[in-house]
Amino acid sequence: MPTINVIDYHSFEGEDGKKLVNVLEDNGVDILHRCGGNSKCTSCRVEVIEGDFGPKSESEQQTLAAKGFNDDHIRLSCQVRVSGDATVKAVMTKTNSNLEPGTRPAD
């Protein structure tokens, strides 16, 4: 299984093919997902420090652009699937925002 290292948290193994947002949450990262994983709100965004989650979908590109996030290293964790080792930084968490995470995204 791939190893996911989360800056300011810890490293853990993530199930290949599973949505990154759920892998993060299942391993104690209090990542937000306010729209329930529908690529609408950008609250689940992560900065990819190392690793590659493949190309952005059209939906992910449009949502990020609409919110002004044009950096190639910013991804929506609800739209990417674990596919190899990676190091990421969770941008918005319950801890740093005082917001409730939202409805858990479907796998």
Essential attributes:
107 residues; alpha+beta; Ubiquitin-like (UB roll); 3 helices; metal ion binding; 2Fe-2S; Adrenodoxin-like; electron transfer activity
Any overview of this molecule?
It is a single chain. The mean pLDDT is 97. This protein is globular. It contains three helices and five strands; from the N terminus they run ββαβαββα. It has 107 residues and is of the alpha+beta class. It starts with a strand and ends in a 10-residue tail after the last helix. It has a single domain (3-97), classed as Ubiquitin-like (UB roll) (Roll), CATH 3.10.20.30. 19% of the residues lie in helices and 20% in strands.
Query: Which stretches of 5+ consecutive residues score pLDDT under 50?
Result: none
Helix share of residues?
10-25%
Largest sheet: 5 strands, mixed
Largest sheet: spatial strand order: 2-1-5-3-4
